[in-house]
Design goal:
With 179 residues, the chain is α/β, with parallel strands linked by helices. The protein has helices spanning 38-53, 118-133, 157-174, and strands at 2-4, 23-25, 31-36, 58-63, 139-144. The chain has a three-stranded parallel sheet.
């Protein structure tokens, strides 16, 4: 079975089912990229543990295709990486109203109000995922679901592949799980 740590679909507080996300949210439904939602992580651990008890393998997809899709500015989805939908003031859409290829730029300089870059937040999400799920024997990690080459028409593809390889190497050095 595949699970996503954070997805573009159903991620906002305005969706009918208001799902949990990795980050805490304020009273207005804005994500706080500097704080985790403990209920979310407990639910993920419970799910993976139940799957392990049933000998079910879980593919954990850490990132999804949110930075370049038409939902980036949609208030119904309230994507955590968009400064309009987080309390951290991170991150700004480009001229096309997306965050591609900026999301995949390991050296992208824009900083949140707490001084963090997109790579800092990506690393925090990867580290938290590894801390919570890295010890389960039934887990393997997927860096990015529906990788951008599918929908980016080849734009900045070298940068995107470099980003994916960076995170694959990062995880491989820190977890015994398959990447």
């Amino acid at each position: 079975v595949r699970i996503w740590i954070y997805t573009w679909f159903g991620a906002g507080s305005l969706t009918p089912f208001n799902p949990l996300t990795p980050w805490a949210r304020d009273a207005n439904g804005k994500h706080d990229l500097d704080r985790w939602d403990s209920a979310y992580w407990q639910r993920v651990r419970n799910f993976v543990s139940a799957a392990q008890a049933r000998q079910i393998i879980v593919e954990v997809s850490i990132f999804s295709e949110y930075p370049g899709n038409d939902r980036w500015n949609d208030a119904n989805f309230r994507l955590a990486w968009n400064k309009d939908f987080n309390v951290n003031g991170a991150f700004t859409a480009d001229d096309d109203r997306y965050f591609y290829p900026e999301f995949f730029d390991l050296d992208y300089a824009e900083r949140s109000t707490s001084g963090k870059t997109v790579r800092d937040y990506q690393r925090a999400l990867v580290d938290k995922t590894l801390a919570e799920l890295g010890s389960f024997s039934n887990v393997y990690f997927e860096i990015h679901n529906e990788f951008p080459a599918v929908w980016a028409d080849g734009a900045a593809i070298d940068e995107v592949f470099g980003w994916q390889q960076y995170w694959a190497d990062y995880i491989r050095q820190r977890a015994p799980r398959l990447v």
